[in-house]
Amino acid sequence: MTTTTSAGTRKLTIARAMAEATAQEMRNDPRVFVMGEDIGPLGGVFGNTRGLYDEFGPERVRDTPISETAFIGAAVGAASDGMRPIVELMFVDFFGVCMDAIYNLMAKNTYFSGGKVKVPMVLMTSTGGGYSDAGQHSQCLYGTFAHLPGMKVVAPSNAYDAKGLMTAAIHDDNPVVFMYHKSLQGMGWLGTEKGATVPVPEESYTLEIGKAAVVREGHDVTLVSLAAGVHHCLRAAQALEDEGFSAEVVDLRSLVPLDRETLRASVAKTGRLIVVDEDYHSFGVSGEIIASVVEHDHACLKAAPRRVAYPDIPIPFAPTMEQWALPNADKIVDAFHQMMLS
Amino acid sequence: MQPTTEQRLWMYRHMVLSRYLEERIESLYMEGKTPVFNMAKGPIPGEMHLSNGQEPCAVGVCAHLDPEDIVTATHRPHHIAVAKGVDLDAMVAEIFGKATGLAGGRGGHMHLFDAKVNFSCSGIIGEGLGPAVGAALSRKLQGKPGVAVAFMGEGAANQGAFHEALNLAAVWQLPVVFVIEDNAWGISVAKQASTAVPRNDRRAAAYDMPGVHVADNDVEAIFSAAGEAIARVREGQGPTLIEIETARLAGHFMGDGEDYRPKGEKEGLKQRDPIPRYRKQLLDAGLLDDASDDTLVEGAHARVEAAIRFAQDSEFLPPEAALEAVFV
Amino acid sequence: MSIVITVPDDLWEGDSEGVITAWLVNDGAEVAQGDLVAEVMVEKAQYEIEAPSTGVLSITKQEDEVVEKGETIASLES
């Protein structure tokens, strides 16, 4: 690919944005390398390591055995020894087989060394359903990862943010969990959210981890979400505009650190809060967002906050059941209507 | 150990039935997915891992099992489910996500549970081993008959769960047999690129249990190896690890371009398709003739068609049923 | 001068149809020879279409449209 397309016109899918950020960092820094299942010649099941094997070869782009405990643990060891590994957990649902390496090692070694041991690694992992892959391949688990201290967590909604966050994650001296939603990747076979494929600068840039973005301004209600949920919110905001209401949409982009300032400022302005989360309803992101606003200032709310989240059930296979359970723009609009009635 | 004529014909019939089921699923799966391949579309959405080529592993092992015996299978489970005697109508209905399915459509093709014949499977690599060990322990503790068989792919032998489960089964001398279906590929990664030993049966030595290798996807060699291993566990003589050289004649999943395979490999495998090979073996032995073969094949096809009709004619559960069955 | 962008005959094996999953450059933008301009998907495989020359892109086949090998999907004015 050449670099002459006029600025601001070249678009990338999130998959390509992640691969481009990784390639640029690998060119700049010999310590950066990639490990995971099918991330070599195949380019990743979800396309986010495409082209890396051809450019950097098998030493730095390493297909692994199906041994997540070993290779994620190995990334912790390599990171602590001065390398900057990027590892892929193909589906976040697979965390069960390797969580010790993630939350007891990756997330705690810095603390247990009194800050002396750095673990500069990126754990990238796919999230989300909507395509009938059932409950072992469709979860988001944002709350699960964000709950555990010691690792940063990002979840972009578009390719611009994905490239900036990926570069920032690779630069970061701390472990970063990079959660990419399958429906945003630009892999057509997963059905693709068009709004995730956006203009992306060719030059390297970073996006600060821990900063949310107001992606649509409004004054009647704040819709807060992340990843695929942001696109549901944008559609809902459009539908509400047609009804004469003005919705503000906050894209969290990072869960850890959580940008509570941006959240609180938005709700202080609108007085209403709806949180949209494809992760499970209870004990998760949506509860944390509401608590972050309410414990700061309960008087800023004109109505009880609401959440449009995944019910507390394993994700069913049958499309009728799965689609019924997933968040969508209609549910967000309904939640707003109920809020205005009460 | 040699199969009886009845066992030979049983194995052949179940291979034919399993293959035809996969062929029908393949064409139904593609409905609504051409020219735009979107996994969410069509009468069978989601991922689809077909078992074409691996049928000998299923029938050669399950020929020795009764409904009371336990089987845990993988993300590629159809052939094993068929051989284990899973209710075919309810299984196909589950693959379609229908109310009459094994789980009312909640599980889909990677999560088939039929308690009547003690069959289950999981979409997570290597995760069938622990439950098989535990079921074997349960039978031992309860003094009940029955043994357990855990199926897995060759890639699963590189998971920690594999080593932990083998050690546990060996140290407690449990009635469980571990069966590796070695189709040489973990999605796009070749076995030799991911595995430090050329043959996983050698890993049995680490747990002081017999390790048996079966070459060339040979139905009767599998029958023989499995028969001996299962006879040993029935007599309380402890677990066995078997690795079977088999072949994945389909992609890892439907839609897989398989560009990672060396040129000509797939064609070579297809020429060694175990079903025509076994048919010829039975014809040569005089156990089958063209007329009886036709009858057998037609019967198997009719059974599959009936199951597919049953699934197609069934309704979906109401969407709210998604909230049910989380707890008993 | 106008040059058309077609789906190369050797982009994938066989006669399957593909679908344009993404235009990676906006209609009317200037592109350079060799720039990646579109993605075409056949089953689960994704293929890349590059600009055959430099010029201003005029898209004739939109995202989600089905395309065959050899088919014209855009033109470049220079």
Task: Explain the overall architecture.
The complex is a heterotrimer of chains A (342), B (328) and C (78). By secondary structure, chain A is an alpha/beta fold. Chain A is 36% helix and 19% strand. In chain A, the strands form three sheets. A seven-stranded mixed sheet of chain A has the order 3-2-4-5-7-6-12, with helices on both faces. In chain A, strands 9-11-10-13-14 form a five-stranded mixed sheet, sandwiched between helices. The longest helix of chain A has 15 residues, at 14-28. The N and C termini of chain A lie far apart (55 Å). The model of chain A is unreliable at 1-5 (pLDDT under 50). Chain B has 328 residues and is of the alpha/beta class. In chain B, helix 1 (5-30) packs across helix 2 (55-62), helix 1 (5-30) runs antiparallel to helix 10 (274-284) and helix 2 (55-62) packs parallel to helix 8 (219-234). Chain B is globular, with a radius of gyration of 19 Å. Chain C has 78 residues and is mostly beta strands. Chain C has one domain (2-77): OB fold (Dihydrolipoamide Acetyltransferase, E2P) (Beta Barrel), CATH 2.40.50.100. Chain C is 0% helix and 50% strand. Chain C is built from no helices and eight strands. Chain C has strands at 2-6, 18-23, 30-31, 36-42, 45-50, 55-59, 66-67, 72-77. A four-stranded antiparallel sheet of chain C has the order 1-8-6-3, with no helix packed on it. A four-stranded antiparallel sheet of chain C has the order 5-4-2-7, with no helix packed on it. The termini of chain C are close together. Chains A and B meet through helix 11 of A and loops of B.
